[in-house]
């Protein structure tokens, strides 16, 4: 097939997927995001990296939707019951759902509050430490066996609370994306509510899937297919990276 026909074919496929997405779901969609994890998701402003990436991808498809901000566990239940149409930033753990191509990644670290020389050679070594983690981290990082019955392993739906409890000595080690931690430390430093010590031991988690990718989950496969087409275009044009860089640079300036 001649090269001159390839752009036309790509345009036809994209147009078809847009038409399919309108035909499959003409009503207003209900889209759920997790509770605030600035700069990725900020419930207060209704924006953030993941919110804007979804907005731009869905906008290309002409989707109309309303947003909810709920805990990860509630988001999973709502999608399973069909009470929402789309869940943003999901792991691919639940059968019966339709997942997008990789949507957003987090680079997760283990950071020790009292040991600048902190070393972590394997995930199993986390069992030696008290830990503050995000909600569902044991599932995302395959820690279930390591932390089973571990009373000093805590998960938090609100990552602001996770950071505060770690700073206040509730646990020695926090498991968190470094962009998220910088944002929360900046916010807390402005409020002067917590003493911040920069002499921490920081180790990239020795986990096979790090950075950890999350996906957009759908109840309807055709909506997922249309979304994938639009998201792929966003990535290929460089717009995806522009959005990420804009928010990350804004976070570093604050």
General description of the model:
InterPro entries: Solute-binding_3/MltF_N. The chain has helices spanning 6-24, 49-60, 72-80, 137-140, 144-147, 159-167, 178-191, 221-236, 239-253, and strands spanning 29-34, 65-70, 86-90, 98-99, 104-106, 108-112, 131-134, 153-156, 173-177, 201-204, 212-218. It is globular and about 50 Å long. The strands form two sheets. Strands 1, 2, 3, 4, 5 and 11 form a six-stranded mixed beta sheet that branches. The model is unreliable at 3-18 (pLDDT under 50). Helix 1 packs across helix 8 (221-236) and helix 6 (159-167) packs across helix 7. The protein is built from nine helices and eleven strands. The chain has 254 residues and is of the alpha/beta class. The protein has two domains: 29-106 and 213-251, Periplasmic binding protein-like II (D-Maltodextrin-Binding Protein, domain 2); 108-203, D-Maltodextrin-Binding Protein, domain 2, CATH 3.40.190. Helix 2 (49-60) links the parallel strand 1 and strand 2 (65-70).
Task: Tell me the layout of helices and strands.
Elements (H helix, E strand, L loop, with lengths): L5 H19 L4 E6 L14 H12 L4 E6 L1 H9 L5 E5 L7 E2 L4 E3 L1 E5 L18 E4 L2 H4 L3 H4 L5 E4 L2 H9 L5 E5 H14 L9 E4 L7 E7 L2 H16 L2 H15 L1
Parallel strand pairs: 1-2, 1-3, 7-8, 7-9
Antiparallel strand pairs: 3-11, 4-11, 5-11, 6-9, 6-10
Helix pairs in contact: 1-8, 2-8, 6-7
Pfam family, one: SBP_bac_3
InterPro entries: Solute-binding_3/MltF_N (IPR001638)
Protein name: Solute-binding protein family 3/N-terminal domain-containing protein
